[in-house]
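Hi everyone, sorry if this is the wrong subforum. Our group has a chain we'd like a structural model of before ordering constructs, and none of us has done structure prediction before. Sequence below.
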Amino acid sequence: MLKAVTLKEIERIFEVLDAMNISREAVVIPLRPEHPGRVSIMKDGKLEIVVERDGDFAAWVSGLRDRIEELMKPPQD
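Answer:
Right subforum, don't worry. Here is the predicted structure as tokens:
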């Protein structure tokens, strides 16, 4: 169980974002993990990444790119 999002977890998230060419300034990462973790777009257009509290962080972060890509897909008619 993850009690707080530390620099170690943030750096791993940044690795994913950097590989996707997403600006770190366009992202909000709360320091308190939650269950379930989630990725969403905030009203101001920033990407919010809430880290999963209860699962294995390495497994969660390995699927982060897919969750971001799914969220950013344009709606289909």
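For your construct planning: The CA atoms of residues 10 and 29 lie 8 Å apart. The chain has a mean pLDDT of 95.
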